[in-house]
Amino acid sequence: MRCLFTLFWTLFLLSASAQLTYETLYVDYDSAWKFRNLKIIPIRKKGGGGMPGATGADVVPLAEALNKGLVTVTERGTTSFENVHWLRFNTHSDKKVYIGGGEIITGGRQDRMIVRDTILNPSDKDQYVPVMCVEEGRWSEKEKKFGYGNYANSGLRKTLDSGHNQVLIWNEVNRQLEAGQFKNWNKSDAYESRYLDKKYVLAGQEYFDFFMNKFRHSDSTIVGFLALSGDKVIGSDIFDGTYLFYHQLEPLLWGYIDEAINSGSPVTLQDDAVKRYANKLLKDEKSQEVFVRDNGKIFRVGGHVVHVNTFFKETP
User: Fold this and answer.
1) Model's pTM, two decimal places?
2) Residue 138: inside a domain
3) 37 within some domain
4) Edge-first strand listing for the sheet containing 127-133
């Protein structure tokens, strides 16, 4: 009987953690934070979110893995035609590495953006990850050391998700650079060139300090958030536990801050409209699947939903 109870409880926990809907989550409208063009509404896990989730606590996010030397990234080859859309990853520990779709990798022969969420298992073999170029016009003869560049903003992530079309991605990067009046510091149309504009960096830092202070002084049950600017929900990111969420929080924030500064406006969207959006996203698994199919993506590991991300930018 005890074994049957243990099995039942294990299956219950697995099924509960397999979804990220109202059954396991709630949107904390009363704890929303707003600064200039950006409003963040926390999403919390019912009963707390301290468990590491389906990925386990042995997963290291890409930024940390690169910083600690737990993974190295290199070009697959020397010619752009055959190799621009792939990067080689090699792990150097017994830890798995979580890579998020939309994360920017700088350096190499050209800056890249990760195409989709991926978990690299520890291996002594080369592992290849699909990427898109976010720096039109540069394919260096000499390969630079790769570094981490945060998440892309929601506009570029949406373009990536719309079809993995390289020309569309270059067009969106160029549109953003022109709209933001960024100087082309590297003599190439690089998405990351905006971070060499001192005024932009200072403005972004003010956003970042405000929101990080709010997160630091909140309890640790947050596993995601809705991001608003102007009359739109500009995106959402939800993880299956606080472990992965808080490890991804800083680079995610920079992406939404970039969107708010360059394409946003003071928030006017009312809670009723936000709730309609949240209901489409979180009501149940079936409706979530339908909504995210056209407005984002769901990353699963062994049938468990690990990350839900949406980019829908129209007024709900």
Assistant:
1) 0.91
2) no
3) yes
4) 71-75, 86-91, 127-133, 112-114, 103-108, 144-151
